[in-house]
Amino acid sequence: MKRVYLDHNATTPIHPEVKAAMIAAMEVFGNASSHHSFGREAHELIENARKTVADALGAQPEEIIFTSCGSESNNLVIKGVTCGNSVCKIGCERSEVIISAIEHPSVLNTAKCLQGEGKIVHLCPVNENGVVKLDVLESLISDKTALVSIMYANNETGAIQPIEEIANMISGRNIIFHTDAVQAFGKIPINVKKLNLDFLSLSGHKIYGPKGVGVLYKKKLRKVCPLIHGGHHEFNLRAGTENTVHIAGLGKAVELCIADMDSEWQRLGELRNWFEAEVVHRIPDSIVNGADADRMAHTSNISFRYIEGESILYDLDFDGIAVSTGSACSSGSLEPSHVLLAMGMDHGRAHSSIRFSLGRSTTKEDLVCTLGALERTVTRLRNMSPLWKDRIKKA
Ligand SMILES: Cc1ncc(COP(=O)(O)O)c(C=O)c1O
Description:
The chain is of the alpha/beta class. It has two domains: 16-259, 3-Layer(aba) Sandwich (Aspartate Aminotransferase, domain 2); 261-394, Alpha-Beta Complex (Aspartate Aminotransferase, domain 1), CATH 3.90.1150. The protein is 42% helix and 15% strand. Strand 5, helix 7 (163-170) and strand 6 form a beta-alpha-beta unit. The protein binds pyridoxal-5'-phosphate.
């Protein structure tokens, strides 16, 4: 059976050149903090990767902190600038944090955790296309705001947020600005200096690198409290002997994705647009969610009304096709995606959604195969759905 992987926003396969770089790095067993030649070899691998990441972001190498994943990077900045410890003056003196309603759980739940410590967390709403409402954001910002954290691109819909406008809105007000760029980095050009960002998070496994490695960009003069205390690693901001192999893999992954970023954007955008047009044409009552937003070229979120996304997912999996839903398991039941609900959708439409995320290996043939399977699946499931039967009767 032909297998089709359309879940690149969940994770990406390791690029063969990344794998080769990691295998080579395994031979370098020294501790990067050691002063002998073995240590220096490991140190050099890490510093080369740091420079590659810094160059890709338009940053300085000393502004790049390696972490264990995107979630850790998000935790480090959110907790690290707002904790009662005095290293971050703004975070100490001000009590409010603003995030958007569509953030990844690693931002949402970290911010919620601050509420227990007496901080006030504002959730900025989004419009029907999943884009942050700038006028509301402006009204939430005050001289009590310590941190604004808004994701660069949403993982479920691909909606790109107006990061430049937000940076301009915040500029000169002594507020810390962080963006979770886990889904955008490596696919869209990002220059932290041009955007005047204070912090940015990224993750290795979304860009054909290994799982278990991430980065937090920290602007030079900004302060953050470490989450993990210990040795002097990562400029005293993230203790623990560096994971040389994963960091070397991340460096290679960054180099590769930057090299073909523009051509992949073009290729995947054309494939995605063709796929969406075909779905809407061939499958009645299918709606592209967030269609009018500026979106990541490889992401498509579509609702197939009157049936559940989970049923579609399992049916497609039977046919060898891997997709995802944004549903989350909560107290034993499936909750519809918080992102789609924040866009104002009713539960039915949100529950019936599927995310297709394309990647480097995706071909037109994959999408043709997916379309056929999808048409069969949706028809079969709808034939069993009382809601659909009702809809047909009324039509
Ligand atoms: C937008 C976003 N932020 C953060 C993360 C977490 O990254 P990691 O899996 O490296 O912890 C993800 C992962 O899906 C994501 O999509």
